[in-house]
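Example record

Each entry pairs one chain with its bound ligand, protoporphyrin IX containing FE.
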Amino acid sequence: MGDLRQDYVRYNKGARTLHWAIAVLVIANLATGLLHDPLEPYVRLMPFHKATGMTILALSVVRIVWRAMWQRPPYPPGISRNAILSARVVQAAFYALMIVMPVTGWILASAGKYPLDWFGLFELPKLPVVRHSAAYSIGHEMHEILGWLFLALVVLHVAAALRHHFLLREPILRRMM
Ligand code: HEM
Ligand code: HEM
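Structure tokens for the complex follow.
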């Protein structure tokens, strides 16, 4: 149905830049989060994980404020209602996860003994959280469970983007390029 040559409208430059910057950082943080334990004897990934995660938080706040200022470009004709609905659900979940994952991580890191610095350049403030508290236990559970949810939704989101591009030949990926 779709035709890659037909006209399509792209997301604005700010939206595209923030999308790809955050995408790279989130994929990196899912990897360092899941691998820090097994790779512990060889490399300390946690300082990098925390600094990248705090960067994701800052960029996501900017992104959500920016997102409130424009309408998404209209979908090309021929995209099913179900596809649009599922895209909406996954994308809304992403905006929530882009805030909740770093904030729960920040809670965990605040209860730890290490200072919270940003790539060794400056120190970030810690939240008033201690190890044996409800905030810490809940934060820990959420960070772990939502991390897996995030990973699953990224797989779905990428599979959908590639399916619309290569199989259905609809200009969906191009809207974000
Ligand atoms: C979008 C951003 C983030 C993602 C996707 C993410 C993802 C993950 C994942 C998948 C794990 C492994 C969970 C487990 O197996 O227990 C993890 C662990 C951890 N993350 Fe994050 N994280 C993010 C942000 C942060 C931030 C901002 C901090 C701190 C400032 C942080 C601190 C931690 C800590 C301390 C652990 C180890 C928890 C433990 O095993 O005790 N994370 N993260
Ligand atoms: C891994 C972390 C990623 C996150 C958190 C993420 C998040 C998002 C969000 C929130 C939107 C909705 C934008 C809006 O309308 O407000 C979006 C759209 C989009 N993303 Fe991602 N994305 C990620 C990775 C990727 C990757 C790797 C690809 C390509 C393979 C991709 C392709 C797209 C496309 C094509 C759209 C537009 C979809 C549409 O028009 O409905 N994303 N993404």
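The pocket of protoporphyrin IX containing FE (ligand 2) is lined by residues 19, 22-23, 26-27, 67, 72, 87, 91, 94-95, 154, 157-158, 161, 172-173, 175-176 (CB under 6 Å).
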